[in-house]
Amino acid sequence: xxxxxxxxxxxxxxLIALILLAYGCGGRTPAVVYYTLNHEASDAPRSPAAADGxxxxxxxxxxxxxxxxxxxxxxxxxxxxxxxxxxxxxxxAPLREAFGGRLVEDLxxxxxxxxxxxxxxxxxxxxxxxxxxTVHRFDGHMGQAVFLDATWTISGPEQNAIIARRRYxxxxxxxxxxxxxxxxxxxxxxxxxxxxxxxxxxxxxxxxKW
Length: 210
Known about the structure:
8 strands; 4 helices; 3-stranded mixed β-sheet
């Protein structure tokens, strides 16, 4: 009878709070872990050069991502029609921005005579060529592989003057079972895309298309 009287005195709202507090004391919420794409570009080829001998200006962007992936949580696949969105493994910055920034850093390493920046960029001179990226898929299966499916275009100063276009699809194996291995594989996938873009710029220059 005494316990019933206590419950009546506490009230339903306070009682729920006490239950939740007791439940929370029995377990600890996992800490959120944040990830970023790292820089892995190497073996830089000879860079294109501007006609006046100055740095060749390359703009990267805009970078478009599907809504499914444009979120803080890391997305993985667990079956043909099933995805997993982790609340405790997140990107340290928006994935679309991290992807574009990593391309810029990789291309600057691969093309040391070029000046590669994100596009559009305020108070910056217009680039001599622009690389647009549309990402269709950039996820993977834990402990297996990462998949990158993207379409890139290289255009001249006028946005409609497309010089080259390609659909780029690759599979990059993961070397371990956890999120660290998954994100490392995603970084390698971006590096491989960067190398293809650098080679495409060389070929376009060799063909005299600028």
